[in-house]
């Protein structure tokens, strides 16, 4: 995999993947997008103080780091699972500027990218397990999730991840009152989610996007 770093409007990095011809975080502000979609409308929109979270597309680890920070602040116990087929290498990870911008110890960020395929307790509120596999082959080990962060590359670049069979798999992985959040609000994705049985909330999007989706399991 070949990458290059870009700077977004909130001064945080995004990563451009030559293989997928797509970026990991919004050019309108990587941290702002991640916080708006996955923290404000994901983690913090759920009142439970103990949560099982699944992320599709671990990528740079930004969503996990923001979740870790908020979990510690709000005293929320998070068991965080992530699926990633293409882990980023140290060379690109060491150049990311997230820690400086949000005042996080770089050692914590490094820890998030260690120990694939086994559980790692980062602190008293955040335990991480990353699976080096595809979403198609991922099998949950008797866990149902409260929240799914669906953060794959866009449907135009990685269409197979947004097909109905994968979105149905997400539905089945959620608890009966669980939900999925994603930055994507394309009409075809809305229709597929509705067909599967999700109840859709169309929310204001992050900077540069009009809408985002929160899909509640019925």
Detailed description of the structure:
It is a single chain. With 218 residues, the protein is α/β, with parallel strands linked by helices. It has one domain: Rossmann fold (3-Layer(aba) Sandwich). It contains 7 helices and 11 strands. The strands form 2 sheets. The protein has an 8-stranded mixed sheet with strand order 6-7-5-4-8-9-11-10, sandwiched between helices. Strands 1-2-3 form a 3-stranded antiparallel sheet, with no helix packed on it. A hairpin with a 2-residue loop joins strand 6 and strand 7. The longest helix is centred in the N-terminal third of the chain and has 13 residues. 38% of the residues are buried.
Helix-strand blueprint:
Blueprint: E1 3-7, E2 13-17, E3 22-23, H1 30-40, E4 50-56, H2 62-74, E5 77-83, H3 90-93, H4 98-102, H5 106-112, E6 119-123, E7 126-131, E8 145-150, H6 164-173, E9 174-182, H7 187-196, E10 198-204, E11 211-217
Parallel strand pairs: 4-5, 4-8, 5-7, 8-9
Antiparallel strand pairs: 1-2, 2-3, 6-7, 9-11, 10-11
CATH class: Alpha Beta
Structural class category: alpha/beta
N-end to C-end Cα span: 39 Å
- Radius of gyration based on Cα positions: 16 Å
| General shape | globular
Widest sheet: strand ordering: 6-7-5-4-8-9-11-10
Using DSSP, what is the number of strands?
A: 11
Secondary-structure element pattern, one letter each: EEEHEHEHHHEEEHEHEE
Under CATH, the topology can be stated as Rossmann fold
**Helix proportion:** 25-40%
The largest sheet, given as strand count, sense and whether it forms a barrel, is: 8 strands, mixed
Within CATH, the superfamily carries the name Vaccinia Virus protein VP39
The amount of beta strand, in percent, is 25-35%
CATH architecture: 3-Layer(aba) Sandwich
Number of helices: 7
Number of domains: 1
**Average predicted confidence as pLDDT:** 97
């Amino acid at each position: 995999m070949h990458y290059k770093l870009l700077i977004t409007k909130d001064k945080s990095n995004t990563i451009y993947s030559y293989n997928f011809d797509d970026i990991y975080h919004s050019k309108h502000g990587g941290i702002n997008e991640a916080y708006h979609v996955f923290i404000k409308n994901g983690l913090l929109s759920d009142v439970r103080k103990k949560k099982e979270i699944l992320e599709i597309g671990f990528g740079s680890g930004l969503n996990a780091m923001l979740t870790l920070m908020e979990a510690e602040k709000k005293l929320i116990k998070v068991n965080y699972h992530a699926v990633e087929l293409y882990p980023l290498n140290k060379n690109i990870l060491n150049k990311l500027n997230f820690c400086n911008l949000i005042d996080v110890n770089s050692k914590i960020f490094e820890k998030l990218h260690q120990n694939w395929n086994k559980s790692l307790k980062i602190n008293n509120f955040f335990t991480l397990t990353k699976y080096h596999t595809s979403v198609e082959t991922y099998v949950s080990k008797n866990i149902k999730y409260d929240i799914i962060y669906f953060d794959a590359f866009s449907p135009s670049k990685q269409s197979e991840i947004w097909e109905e069979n994968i979105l149905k798999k997400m539905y089945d992985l959620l608890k009966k009152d669980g939900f999925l959040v994603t930055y994507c609000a394309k009409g075809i994705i809305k229709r597929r989610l509705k067909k599967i049985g999700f109840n859709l909330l169309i929310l204001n999007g992050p900077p540069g996007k009009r809408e985002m989706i929160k899909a509640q399991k019925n």
